[in-house]
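Q: Convert this sequence to structure tokens.
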Amino acid sequence: MMTKADRYLVRDIQNILENGYMDENPRPVYEDGTPAHTISVNHVVRKYDLAKGEFPLCTLRPQAWKTGIREIFTIYQHPTNVLSEMREQGVTWWDPWDIGDGTIGQRYGATVSRYDLIHNLIEDIKKDPYGRRKVVSLWQEADLHETPGLAPCAFLTMWNVRGDYLDMSMIQRSGDMLTASGAGGINEIQYAVLQMMIACVTGKKPGVFTHFVANEQIYDRHMDNAHEMLHRAAAMEEKKAKEKAASAGASAIPAILLHKELGCRFEDITIDDFEIVHYSPLKPQLKFELGI
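A:
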């Protein structure tokens, strides 16, 4: 069956195809040097209630969920900007953004480490749960000017306690919809997992996760894949209709689970504490040429 994320993704692809605009003089280029143009829309919002089983997981193509979680570890748990240290943690997709010194610049994990952002957040949730200043920002002007490097895309999270639940919103300035930022893609998987981790450490349950993307785009060389994902979604809905007519049984919902005791140390959570269930994404995997 289609997940909530699948339905969001269909909506958002159709929105870009119908209402998107082409950029001018893009910064990224493909590997062959051709400018990597995008078709974009502005101000995309998606909302999930993790407590109700609405984990943001797209099934229209396989998602590299373990690598995505490992990347979150390199940013927030064992923060680093050193590419060799990222590779040791199983993350290699940052290699093209080497600024020439083996790092991605004063970005992401380096910023988290410099300002101790995560430990400050955890302590704030524990000491002042209903305070409204729980903001974690990777957009630090001093850091951005200190070195070259890709400016953070998913750069801001805001956290709110609601009784037994921890809600979180994530702000993303720019998103490559089909490879990372789209509904149920790597970015949503990562930040829903981060929310689960912080909730677990602070003795809460993960609640509402809201994702805002200021500019979300599909690259011009990804258009065939966009239509293929719409085709897969239509085929899935047709299959669901036939199965519903044949059986009244409900389908299990795909999700990622965290098996760790409440109140554990943030640093003690490992990739082996996560389990994916009821996940059978459509294959074959789609290939995307990246704009760098």
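Residues 166 and 206 are 5 Å apart (CA to CA).
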